[in-house]
Amino acid sequence: MATVMPKLDHAAPEALSAETVAPLRDKLRGALCTPGEPGYEEARTLWNAMIDRHPGAVVRAAGAADVIAAVRFARERGLSLAVRGGGHNIAGNAACEGGLRIDLSKMKSVRVDPVRRTARVEPGVTIGELDREAQAFGLATPLGINSTTGVAGLTLGGGFGWLSRKLGLTVDNLLSADVVTADGQLVHASEEENRDLFWAVRGGGGNFGVVTSFEYRLHPVGPVVVSGLVIHPFANARELLSSYRQLVAGAPDELTCWVVLRKAPPLPFLPPEVHGTEVLVFAACYAGEVEEGLKAVAPLRALGKPLADVIGPTPFVAWQAAFDPLLTPGARNYWKSQNLLELGDAAIEVMLDHVSRLPTPECEVFIGNLGGAVNRVPVDATPYPHRDVHFVINVHTRWSDPALDGACIAWARALFDALAPHATGGVYVNFMPGDEAQRVSQGAYGANYERLASLKARYDPENLFRLNQNIRPAG
Ligand SMILES: Cc1cc2nc3c(=O)[nH]c(=O)nc-3n(C[C@H](O)[C@H](O)[C@H](O)COP(=O)(O)OP(=O)(O)OC[C@H]3O[C@@H](n4cnc5c(N)ncnc54)[C@H](O)[C@@H]3O)c2cc1C
Question: Residue 153 Cα, ligand 1 centroid: separation in angstroms?
Fold first, then answer.
């Protein structure tokens, strides 16, 4: 392996002239674009409008050969190297200022094997695209709650959503991956081959190479599932959350119920006078038979006096996209996240206090509920260590006017700080913003960090893949 130490991070521009990139351009089946060239603006843009970086060049990879060429090119020249899957990550590490960016979003193939119940998936595929192909056979794997999220970044950090309490994290369902490592080699990683690398990519993010293909285990799901929303006045949130924590403690693995605290969007099934006022939303999905699902959600529907109850049999792919209208690209976003073992009264008070002072109508606090199959996996089975966590709180601050940056970020940090005494200190790596490098070792990986750092030293000793939630090579 060459020992070129990349000198610059994504804060420091590296201009790349047309002559410099010409040898790489000649090798590609996909495209390369530099500033001003067709496709460049689209290729450099991420979901979070807070991230506005200008890579020196973007390789729009068409396949593994392009990725190999780009990795070798960046390594030999000591360039900053950013890797983009679906472009959703809040931290924005998929973009660099100057340097080279590998954009995988054109690699869209999904091949489902309905007999073996597996899917072979390229890294530009979104959740909605994988769901669509797998649901053609009544199959699915656990993914996230917003259908435009990339499966690549989601998988590499862990991945959880409506199916996880029943079927585990996305990484618990990963069977193999093809990885272009820092020396520019394509390596197949699975339980049978390159087991250490396979362990590392199941939560270790983009630290170990560029994944050009994921193979997932699929399960029968739907195609119709009981799912939907129950919306309550915010005034009743305290007692509802207290009932909620009892209800989810006894819920079957098939039932997942998350809470969203926010101002009501103008949903057609809500009375107009409720629009723009604070509400508590229960969002629930039963990953099993419709009849059983209707029975399982009955206690949730019986709570309080809701403003609206729109739970019922729904196509799984439609439910997977239900939150998309609230999570469109192009807004400014800042997240802070805490893991909780239990939803205590004090944590509830902190959330209610801050939600009564939301800085913009698009901001929200959501309470994700885990447990079930996720928590039955040993801590050291994958890099994701939070196997005892039951609630993931995400403070999702969202706004449009840059003048509100300070107020919105300050609100998120204040809520995060106030929750800290009630939280584990751990954090899901995929919910970390770009300014939390100090949380990577103990917060994101805890007991698994040491093994990750020593594998990083083996697979990427020069830290070529460092524009991510970075694991420093040990030694
Ligand atoms: C609106 C929204 C909703 C979300 N909901 C959920 C949810 O329900 N559950 C959940 O688990 N997560 C959720 N997330 C978090 C999500 O998992 C992360 O943002 C994830 O990183 C997105 O992946 P991406 O490919 O779209 O991101 P990108 O920004 O493209 O990639 C993120 C990072 O991953 C690495 N990377 C990406 N692709 C590759 C690759 N092929 N090889 C090597 N490294 C790569 C790079 O380091 C990159 O910086 C959500 C995010 C958003 C914005």
Answer: 3
